[in-house]
Amino acid sequence: AESPTSVRKVVVHLRATGDAPILKQAKFKIPGTDKFAKVIDFLRRQLHRDTLFVYVNSAFSPNPDELVIDLYNILTSYFHTSKGISLVVF
Amino acid sequence: MRKAIQKRMEAKKYVWEGAIPLQIHLHESQVTTLPPPPPALILAPRIGYLPLLVPLIKPHFSSTLPPGVDTIWFEYRGLPLKWYIPTGVLFDLLCAEPERPWNITVHFRGYPGNVLIPCDGEDSVKWSFINSLKEAAYIINGNCKNVMNMSQSDQLELWHSVMNGRVPVRLYVWSISEDFDDWEDLSQVDSWEKISYINRPIEIHKEGKCFTLHDAMKSLLPEFFSDESLSDSKLARVDFEDAQKIPSEDVSSNKVVEDQGQNAYEHREACCISSSAEIKLIRIQGIEPKLEIPFSWLVNNLLNPDHFLHICVCVKVPQ
C-alpha cells in the first residue's frame, strides 16, 4: 500500500540475455517520475558496463528522456500484452 | 491581385515552417584564428536532427579548430541541445519568439557528458530514430513487427529520407480518357487496371528555391510534363474561357471556386502542360493542395503513420 504522498514506483524486471551477467536481484523498483536514463545508469553500474543496449519488452530501446511511468503505461494499457516493464539487456 | 499576394505569403509561411534557418557560431573557446570565422548559414529540415548537419558544418570551421579529437555538440544560449530531438521541435520548444535565423553555437570539444548522452554521429541518430519508430509501431499495434520486418534496405531507405530529404511516396494514378464537365459525369473506376501504382521516393533538393508539389509531380510523372517548365506567366494566361471549364464545386472539396477568373491559374485545371496528357486532380489526405505548395509542408503534415506520403492523381490521357 502506498501513502498518498509517496511517488508511485514501477516494478522493472530484468531478463538476462546472451552474455549479460545475471543480476542477483532481477526485479527492482523505480519511481515512475524517473527518466529511463536512470534505469540505464543503474544497470550500467550493476553490470559494470560502459555501454548497454536496453530493450523494453524485447521491442524497442526507449529514448532516455522517457518517463518510466509513461513507458509503463504504453506497455500495459493499450493491448494488455504485458504486466509491466521487462528489460532485456545486450 | 491582393489575393494572389496573400496566397504567396501563405506559401512562404509554409516554407518557414518546413525548415529552420540556422546561423551556427563556433564557440569562442575553439576559435584559433584571427579574424574569427563567420557563422555557417544552414537551412535545417524540421524533421531532421542537428548531428546530421555536421558534414555541412565541419568543413566550414575545420581550418580554425584546435588540434585534437572532435566531440561535436550544439548549444542555444548556454543550454546543450539534445541531439535526438528533431530540429524543428527544438526550435519550437526553445525559441518562444521565433528567431530567424536561429542563432546556435557549435562546439567541437568539451562534450557535456553530464547533460547529454553520447552521440557518435549519424549512427547514433539513426539508432534513436529507428527505436522511436519501433515505439510508435508498438503504441499503434502493440508490437513492432512491422518495423522489425522491414528489410535492412527498407530501413536504410527510410532513414535516408530523414537524412537527404528523400520522402517515401506511394502514387496512385487514375487514368481517364474522356472529357467531362463535372466530376460526377466521369465513369466509375471499375477495375484496378485503371489505376497504376508507383512507389518512388522523392528527393527534396534543399539548395535553391523552394521545392514545390509541382516539382515533386514533375519528378514522379515526368511524362505528363512538357520540356518547357511551367512559368508564372504561363499560368496567368489561363483566360476566363478556360475558367468556365472548371468543374463546379465538389461538395466534399474544401475549396470553393468562387472567383473563377482570379483562382483559375491556381486551380488544378491549370496544370495542363503537355498537349497529350493533363493532370486533372491531385489529392493528399483528402486535400487538393495547390501546385506551388512547398513539398516539405506536405511531408510534415500529411504523412501516413507508415511514413509514406500517399498521393492520388487523376490524369486525362488521349484516347
Automatic annotation (TrEMBL), chain A:
Regions that span the bilayer: none
One Pfam match: APG12
Keyword Transit peptide: no
One GO CC term, this protein: cytoplasm
Keywords, sorted A to Z: Autophagy, Isopeptide bond, Ubl conjugation pathway
InterPro entries, sorted: Atg12, Ubiquitin-like_domsf
Keyword Transmembrane: no
GO biological process, one term: autophagosome assembly
Family: Belongs to the ATG12 family.
Protein's job: Ubiquitin-like protein involved in cytoplasm to vacuole transport (Cvt) and autophagy vesicles formation. Conjugation with ATG5 through a ubiquitin-like conjugating system involving also ATG7 as an E1-like activating enzyme and ATG10 as an E2-like conjugating enzyme, is essential for its function. ATG12/ATG5 conjugate has an essential role in plant nutrient recycling.
Assembly with partners or alone: Forms a conjugate with ATG5.
Protein name: Ubiquitin-like protein ATG12
UniProtKB/TrEMBL annotation, chain B:
Boundaries of every Autophagy protein ATG5 UblB domain copy: 166-313
Record-annotated Autophagy protein ATG5 UblA domain positions: 15-108
This protein's record includes keyword Repressor: no
Domain of life per record: Eukaryota
Subcellular location: Cytoplasm
Keywords associated with the record: Autophagy, Cytoplasm, Isopeptide bond, Transport, Ubl conjugation
Cellular component aspect of the GO annotation: cytoplasm
UniProt record similarity statement: Belongs to the ATG5 family.
Function (record text): Required for autophagy.
Subunit structure: Conjugated with ATG12.
Protein name: Autophagy protein 5
Origin species: Theobroma cacao
